[in-house]
UniProtKB/TrEMBL annotation:
Residues covered by the GOST seven transmembrane domain: 174-414
Membrane topology: Multi-pass membrane protein
Top-rank taxon, per record: Eukaryota
Coiled-coil ranges (or none): none
Entries under Pfam families matching the protein: CAND6-7_N, GOST_TM
Annotated signal peptide: 1-26
UniProtKB keywords: Membrane, Signal, Transmembrane, Transmembrane helix
Principal subcellular localisation of the protein: membrane
Record organism: Aristolochia fimbriata (White veined hardy Dutchman's pipe vine)
Cellular location(s): Membrane
TM spans (from-to): 176-196, 241-267, 279-298, 310-331, 359-381, 387-408
Xref: InterPro entries: CAND6-7_N (IPR054103), GOST_TM (IPR053937), GPR107/GPR108-like (IPR009637)
Name the record gives this protein: Protein GPR107-like
């Protein structure tokens, strides 16, 4: 593959990477690059205000090539705005020997030719034009291996002059997560009260649902502390570890509760069928893999050689899990439809069927909004309003939890399970009409 198509394909893949890039968890990056021949390495994406700064510290620099003596002027760290990335892709497709360092669309920060004799450098660069930028390292020497230790810091100055290490569109996240944490605490309190008030109607699934609320609240608390410490210090101070733990437990519990509720376990039947057990045995290990992929994506960055692969792994696993949890609900709907035609309690079964149909629509709506709409908002929203997509996702989750918990609350006279004689007769008439039409 020639250098022209290779560079063009690199920028196209980076464009996709930037559009899919999740929220960063640490804005002070320290990494070691060893014998790396990649012509382009992306470090981080950051939203700058007019008080933004980039600090780059490079040490233990060395490079070697089997073809010729490398030119230090063709190694450079540079910033590229989101708008200029498209122009750079077109430029790379038009020039056979394209090197991004020479483009007027990039802002070169630190070239190897300016590094002192100690093979190290520590520079700070102010950002004069606000915007969303990506930090890259370019190696325009063909077949050249680069080794170096790199430390990068990106931050804005707030109104008091203190450093804010969260991008301009994410600095509101600590307050956002704290607000939703308090909302779920109130939600959990209401759920505990409802279970206590209706002790005779409480089933095992309701305790599991309460555990889900607790894990979701703790997940948000850790996310708030994580973002707070990143905002103030640039690092998470260990809160990221707790965040991943509770995120994993919450994810497993959420999919498990949806599967169990969708099969009617506990409050409709005390056991699971073999195929439903298989769904759980598939979903839970996949959730483990999804959380590992999420941790790799969040704790490293696009500078990792396999970062894009981990992104794809996470997306594929998430899609598989979302599809898998829908099957038990569909099975329950089909089973209830068949039972309604033969069981004497026709109205009761039709009511259950109505319940599961509504639940199916709620689950599909939740998955569609959080997986597609939120991703679209993250892509189209201006860099200063990236927090809006996160707020939309959390609002959708809270609404889904509220609807699901309301539909399956532990009450003595649930509208879906209590029927009178008139409803029974009406249901029988519906069934007779359906049989007549068939």
């Amino acid at each position: 593959m020639g250098r022209k198509p290779r560079m063009a394909s690199l920028f196209l893949s980076l464009l996709l990477s930037i559009s899919l890039m999740p929220l960063a968890f640490c804005e002070i990056k320290t990494l070691k690059i060893v014998s790396d021949s990649r012509p382009l390495i992306m470090f981080e994406r950051f939203g700058f205000t007019n008080t933004g700064h980039v600090n780059i510290s490079v040490s233990s620099v060395s490079f070697s090539s089997s073809l010729s003596s490398p030119d230090p002027d063709l190694f450079s760290f540079f910033l590229l705005s989101q708008e200029s990335l498209y122009h750079l892709i077109i430029e790379s497709q038009q020039s056979p020997q394209f090197c991004p360092i020479t483009s007027h669309y990039v802002l070169n920060l630190l070239k190897f030719k300016s590094i002192d004799d100690n093979l190290s450098s520590n520079r700070s660069f102010p950002i004069h034009v606000p915007g969303e930028y990506s930090l890259f390292f370019a190696n325009c020497n063909p077949e050249t291996l680069v080794t170096m230790d790199v430390r990068t810091e990106m931050y804005n100055l707030d109104y008091s002059g203190a450093r804010d290490y969260l991008p301009a569109g994410q600095t509101q996240l600590p307050s956002l997560y704290l607000t939703f944490f308090l909302a779920y605490c109130v939600f959990l309190g209401v759920w505990i009260y409802a279970c206590y008030k209706n002790k005779l109607s409480v089933h095992r699934i309701h305790f599991l649902m309460g555990g889900l609320l607790l894990m979701k609240a703790l997940d948000l608390l850790c996310a708030e502390e994580d973002k707070h410490y990143v905002k103030v210090t640039g690092t998470a101070h260990g809160w990221d570890v707790l965040f991943y733990i509770f995120q994993f437990i919450k994810g497993v519990l959420l999919f498990t509760v949806i599967v169990l509720v969708g099969t009617g376990w506990s409050f409709l039947k005390p056991f699971l069928q073999e195929r439903e057990k298989k769904i759980l045995m598939i979903v839970i290990p996949l959730q483990v893999l999804a959380n590992i992929a999420s941790a790799v994506i969040g704790e490293t960055g696009p500078f990792l050689k396999d970062w894009m692969t981990w992104n794809q792994v996470f997306l594929v696993i998430d899609i598989i899990c979302c599809c898998a949890i829908i099957f038990p609900i569909v099975w329950s709907i089909r089973s209830l439809r068949e039972t309604s035609k033969t069981d004497g309690k026709a109205a009761r079964n039709l009511a259950k069927l109505t319940l599961f149909r509504k639940f199916y629509m709620v689950v599909v709506g939740y998955l569609y909004f959080t997986r597609i709409v939120v991703a679209a908002l993250r892509t189209i929203a201006a860099y200063r309003y990236q927090w809006v997509s996160e707020a939309a996702g959390e609002c959708a989750s809270l609404a889904f939890y509220a609807i699901m918990f309301y539909m399956f609350q532990p009450v003595e006279k649930n509208e879906y399970f209590v029927v009178d004689d008139e409803e029974e007769e009406a249901a029988q008439a519906i069934l007779r009409d359906e049989e007549f039409e068939l």
